Amino acid sequence: MEQRQLGRTGPHVSTLGLGCMGMSDLYGPADRAEGLATIAMAVERGITLLDTGDFYGMGHNEMLIGEALRSLPREKLAISVKFGALRGPDGEWNGYDSRPAAIRNFLAYSLRRLGTDHIDLYRPARLDPAVPIEETIGAMAELVRQGHIRHIGLSEVGAETIRRAHAVHPIADLQIEYSLLSRGIEDEILPTCRELGIGITAYGVLSRGLISGHWSKDRGAHGDFRAMSPRFQGANLDRNLSLAEALGRAAEARGATAAQLAIAWVASRGADIVPLIGARRRERLDEALGALSVQLDERSLEAIEAAIPRNSAAGARYPEAQLAHMDSEAPHR
Asked: Where does the record place the NADP-dependent oxidoreductase domain (predicted)?
């Protein structure tokens, strides 16, 4: 597994990272034993970046990773944690909190659940409109000086916020959705990050399974948030599945699967981009890792662009109520 550095100041991590959210939350029922086995397999195959959020399963995901870490080489791994999202006992979402005192509180609980003395990459999950980003990053910079966190990251924020945050303390990377169906960051956000030397950890590289080659029109599960996503509804779903089928044909012609081609495309966008694989099971992880063997020449890139042209996705990537909380989307709404 090759390594990529997250920005000019961040850690060196594997070319692909493992996004662990689905092992605990939002994609329907999960299997603890399979989740642990998938994490172990990822590390065995060379993945060194594990991504989570303290609100995934209301702490369950961190506890799952903490359990896995007991038998893994912690010193060789980079743990990335998002914080700030507020949830209730019924799983509801209640906004965000990035006040300095709240950050220290969130961190204390994360360290205990993960069973570690530091977090390698720590980031607010979204911009808190009630707290200036300078105040949030200033508090995190103090945590870096104290040794509790190693690097500061951001998630789903726009170019102006990135600049303001970076002026307070070097930002290692921005976590944001980036895929063949979601290319909005190419306009302003990605150029800003490259100007400032900030890496990208790209989530949603398969558009939550939509272009993986494994999604069907009649698929759905209780507790799966994709049922509320505009891209998975009605005529939007029909259109997007037709794009996925075109990608599948392009992949088959190159001896790959649609998922592998989609992941390889994101990885090919630059050495400063690390795709996160949201695999919940070992078989899906094994398929995703096959993307590392996919070589994309000019003809391949042209075929991919022809299958899924930019701005061809039908429907927004989140419901409007959620987009309203995303600073990264503010200029585009």
From this structure: 16-307
